[in-house]
Amino acid sequence: MLTALLPESLLVVTALVVLGLGVSMPKARTTSTAITLLGGFLAAAALLLFPIDGNFLHGMVVLDPIARIFKLVILALGLIAAVFASESFPETHFAESLALILFGTVGMMLLTGTEDLLMIFLALELTSIPLYVLAAFNKTSRASAEAGLKYFLIGSVSAAFLLYGLSLIYGVTGSTNLLAISRATADPLLTAGIVLTLAGFAFKVAAVPFQLWAPDVYEGAPTAAAALVASGSKVAGIFILVKLLIAGLGHWSGAAGWGQFLPGWAPVLALMAAASILLGNITALVQSNVKRLLAYSAIAHGGYLLLGLSSARAETLPAVLFYVIVYALTTAGAFGVVAIVEKQSGGSRLDDFNGLAKSSPGLALCLLVFFISLAGIPPLAGFFGKFYLFSAAMENPSMLWIVILAIAMNAVSLYYYLIVLKHAFVLPACGDIRPAGSPASRVLVAALALAVLALGLTPNLLLSHLGKHAPAKVASLNTENFSR
Amino acid sequence: MILTATFLSAFAGAGLILLLPERSAALARWIALLAALAGLGFATVAFLDFDSAGPHFQFLTNIPWIPQLGISFSTGADGISLVMLVLTGLIAVTGVLFSWNVTHRTRAFFAFFLTIIGGVYGVFQSFDLFLLFVFYEIVIIPKYFLIAAWGSTNREYGAMKLTMYSVAGSALVLLVMVAAYAASGAHSFDLFTLADPSKAHFAPGFQAWAFPVMFLGFAVLAGIWPLHTWAPTGHVAAPTAVSMLLAGVVMKLGSYSALRVAMTLFPAGLDQWRLPIAILATAGIVLGALVALAQKDLKFTVGYSSIAHMGFVLLGLMTLNLAGLGGSVLQMFSHGIIGGLLFAVVGRMIYDRTHTRDIAELGRMNLTKVLPFAAFTFTVASVASMGLPGFSGFIAEFTILKGSWTSLPWLLIPTGIGVVITVAFTLRALQRTFFASSEASTYTHPLDPITLPEKLGAVILMAATLAAGLFPSVLLDPILRSFQSPLMHQLLK
């Protein structure tokens, strides 16, 4: 039991140590970062060295190979945010920001390792509350305060939706355990519960019509906080949504195929996906701030992920999981570049990227890799991710309507990514730019760019793990009448 | 392995140039030239090594890549591939030679240039649909930067328009790819498997929409009318080497892939849509030539002439007989060389010196006296482009016309008119630019003489079109034989 929660416990201890250090030696920022990273590596080692599978505390903590992969990814994303924190968080109370990142990471990791409604809600809150604070962390900036407040208000309303939905599911099925829920019989109240739950999760992944917070939070929050919201929080949200819908509520999926709509969560997801893809990509076309642009791109990518889920077939799960990991790594890297550029030229508007290829060619090249990957151009990972996702969704040919929409909008998306790259590569710099950014951040950005390239050239590195475990996982939980 | 070496050398050259320190423009140039020469060398050796009595597909490599989706790294070549690979090598080498004067951000220029070349080499040898598409898409992004950063007239607009057209075409292709993968049930992207009706079956209803969507997706890049408008603006905005690449090989990516993928995978769809596409191709020939006739800008004239000449390629594809298909592939090669040469003269030899492309203004400059070599080269390219016997353009377009005589005879009337207009606009551009009244010459500013790399590049391309015109069987025999292969023979009616 203790071993099962060892990585999370190590992170909590690290967070407390960092907090203590912040109080006693507020100037020792490098030391705090070093301790954070050390704690993170210990947690990763614990994950890798003690791979135990099993069900603890009646489904409150459930570990399996695929959950471990996701814990590792989330841990990595948390540490990435911690490294970028030195670029974007204010110098005062720096250690607290690191501790909050760690607490948030613990919440996301717990979220991936549970099959119980109560624990899902608790872990979600443990994730969200540190993120609210992180978004508002820059006390001298009005935009940051606005971001935090907006995130908190909309987040708590959506948490209320979610809690209500979960309570209805519990009321109808009589259990908070996903396995038990999957055996329950249908009930109209359950439908209401599912819809309310979906609304809560739609907020987490910023799907239309629950996306309004995203642009302001991405733009106003310190960039490292935005990176964590965009990457780690999304990975955890999608993973638990997959688990909840497929493993727990698989019977009530309905169908989203053209002309074959059946009531259930699949058509709801499909509609949200279509709206997110349309709104995200079209609104991104006119943005002049890169962080805001990334927010709309995140809405669009959330739409692609929901598209994969809405085909409601076990075969698409590896594709969805692969895509969310690739997306998170890419977007974390993109935010890293933005954080360094902000430090160099004082902002994240398009004009602040002018002449980047001349002042820091390496950084510009990394930006190229991340954005081209987001636009789904080979040989980068984003291309294979989309390709796999769309072909998996097409295994159900009646999903053609939404695949057409997604592919068309994906072509449109290249326009706004290219506009940013035009500023970086084609337009001359407005003034004198001195390279800034810590060596650690620069190395990390380069490493992420290499990872995106490597996963594009050899997707098998990740795919072989996901493909092996994901369908088996579903099968074990939901062997009979998994409707589609 | 020798085929793989073509694109590996290009990508390696690009990577090496990126690693150079900032102030090493000259070194970057030489590395680019060496990489291009190496690619041409590998392609030529493969062409000569090809056993004309052996199997249809040679130099085959097949390595599992993403087995979960049935994707493998599968390359090889038949006669069609080899002709296109040699063309790519020629355009790569001459493109570097005609870019010898690029001094602005030289490293980045050649790195992007070689990336395009590598992608093009890759498309022409891929026999896995996924792999082919990956190479096909690699070409898109470098094109944007090369035009937007090193181009001329309206470069940002031209670059974005060209990129969005390309990516829209790719989106159509991608859509059919994912749909076909699910529909075939073969769980493979291998072209040999997908084209084999016993392993992968596409229902006629599926082919009826999949074929036109995929064909048009590819044909956007080949400049099919009315989706051609990216080409003139893109060509004009692009720096010389990129205009050469676009006309020389990138447009051929579209027609080659349309033939290799769309037409071979969906024969039933092809039957259904053959006439409409042939009509579009003919419209491209006639209207492209007519619009070229009305241009004041010399580069626009050449740009629209590309649409007309690519119309011949697409018309040849739709004849579905040996002469038409073979002529079509030969025309891809021929127009690649001639189009590249025309853009080299207009963009590098003339525009870089005179800073104008206005035909009337150029006519006042007495260019035959000031730049005799440019005038000579342009004259040779023009007569080759008009289809004078002895040059490659004649034999290619003649073979296509012969092919359409047997299968689409009534389209020969508009096509014939197109041929006449082609002669008219080519002569008009040639006469007004170089042989306008010389006594009215008001231009006194001396122009830099033509440099050695330019002469070298021009001689290579002129020799290539002449050689292909005098000894067409060297190219045509392997091309025609390729249409007997199990992959392609079902096209012949």
Give a structural overview.
The complex is a heterodimer of chains A (484) and B (493). By secondary structure, chain A is mainly α. Chain A has one domain (6-477). Chain A is built from 20 helices and 2 strands. Chain A has helices at 6-24, 29-49, 65-88, 94-112, 117-135, 142-173, 178-182, 188-204, 213-220, 223-230, 232-248, 265-284, 290-310, 317-345, 356-359, 361-374, 381-393, 400-425, 439-457, 460-477, and strands at residues 54-56, 61-63. Chain A has a two-stranded antiparallel sheet with strand order 1-2. Chain A is globular. Chain B has one domain. In chain B, 74% of the residues lie in helices and 3% in strands. Chain B has helices at residues 2-19, 25-49, 79-98, 106-125, 129-138, 140-150, 155-184, 191-194, 204-221, 230-237, 240-265, 267-293, 298-319, 322-354, 359-363, 367-370, 372-386, 392-407, 412-434, 452-470, 473-482; strands at 58-66, 71-77. Chain B is globular, with a radius of gyration of 21 Å. The interface between A and B is medium-sized, with 36 and 34 residues.
Any chance you could write out the topology, listing elements then pairs?
The complex is a heterodimer of chains A (484) and B (493).
Chain A: H1 6-24, H2 29-49, E1 54-56, E2 61-63, H3 65-88, H4 94-112, H5 117-135, H6 142-173, H7 178-182, H8 188-204, H9 213-220, H10 223-230, H11 232-248, H12 265-284, H13 290-310, H14 317-345, H15 356-359, H16 361-374, H17 381-393, H18 400-425, H19 439-457, H20 460-477
Antiparallel strand pairs in A: 1-2
Chain B: H1 2-19, H2 25-49, E1 58-66, E2 71-77, H3 79-98, H4 106-125, H5 129-138, H6 140-150, H7 155-184, H8 191-194, H9 204-221, H10 230-237, H11 240-265, H12 267-293, H13 298-319, H14 322-354, H15 359-363, H16 367-370, H17 372-386, H18 392-407, H19 412-434, H20 452-470, H21 473-482
Antiparallel strand pairs in B: 1-2
